[in-house]
Amino acid sequence: MNIEQKVKQAIKKYQLCNKKEKILVALSGGKDSAVTAYLLKKFGYDLEGIHIGLGLGEYSKRCLDAVKELCERLQINLHIYSVKKETGKTMRDIFKHKDKKLSNCTLCGVMKKWFLNKKARELKADKIATGHNFDDGLETFLMNLFKGSSELNSNSAPILKTKNKKFIVRIKPLFFIENEEIKNYCKKLNLPVYKKICPYRGETYRVETRNFLKNLSSEEKKNLMKNSLKLAKKIKKEEKEIDYCEICGEPSRKNICKKCDLLNSKL
Ligand code: AMP
Ligand code: ZN
Questions:
Q1: What is the dihedral of CA 86, 248, 106, 149, to 10 degrees?
Q2: CA separation for the pair 249, 93 (Å, rounded)
Q3: Residue with CA nearest ligand 1 atom 17
């Protein structure tokens, strides 16, 4: 099966989306989200793009340029938001935050998820599509296992839903597609993407996990994915209800959501 057939199959099997829904594709400027947008558009879904400006200098500027060019080429509407404009702080200000041992990538992740959910709701989107791929999924699953994280279930699935009315369902159409295949496909189509690694990334636990995964065979990786999906299904049933953040009103497992916790800490 080629990438298009595999993505179509995943959409059907996991009921990721349908043609009546408005889908907001989260565009970073990288290959994964570009290919996600390209495929969903090609398959005829009602698609719009969203980009969150993180305020990471030249890197962010180049990412935005790539996203704009992609949306022009695919003829999709693009919504752009800026962390600085809406919170008064850039991600670089937030990185300086020393209270917790959180990596820069984790901090950006918290901010992106918060913005995506809130803005998708305001834009009346039914689903948010991200570019997370097979390798990302395995890394997340292993990282949560290694860390004994209670979020074991939350990212190990092609579709994430909760009963919370303010939570916008997130879908990952490339969940079963390996990194290499996406890279080749993106290259073949010559989609506009910014290829540089974020200069603020550093050596994260994710990178270590990625290196660990390189030692596994393709079959072992597929088995790991199978088990991760089985486990996610079981854990889902026991999941604690998600409530609302006391400060911003967004869905949150704790009284104060991760984003408000970050912004309220001394920066
Ligand atoms: P990452 O966490 O950077 O690996 O990104 C995972 C997915 O989140 C990407 O494939 C995009 O769909 C989405 N994403 C990442 N960065 C942004 C951004 N700045 N704006 C909108 N979506 C993003
Ligand atoms: Zn909050």
A1: -170
A2: 24
A3: 28
Pull the structure tokens for residue 121: 């709701």
Q: What is the DSSP letter of 98?
A: -
Return left, alpha or beta for 55; rule: phi > 0 is left, psi -120 to 50 is alpha, else beta. left
CA distance 153 to 155: 6
Do 167 and 161 form a contact (C-beta atoms < 8 A)?
yes
Q: Decide if 47 contacts 69 (C-beta within 8 A).
A: no
| For the CA of 136, the nearest atom of ligand 1 | 4
Q: What is the mean pLDDT of each run of 10 residues along the chain (267 residues)?
A: 97 97 98 98 98 96 98 98 94 78 88 97 98 94 82 76 92 97 98 95 85 93 91 69 90 92 75
Tokens 């918060």 -> residue: 114
Instruction: Return the residue whose CA atom lies nearest to atom 8 of ligand 1.
Output: 130
Residues 1 and 13: their CA atoms lie apart, in Å, by 15
Q: Which of 84, 85, 79, 156 is nearest to 121 (CA)?
A: 79
The predicted model scores a pTM of 0.94
Phi-psi region of 244 (alpha: psi -120 to 50; beta: other; left: phi over 0): beta
Number of CB atoms found within 10 A of residue 75's CB: 8
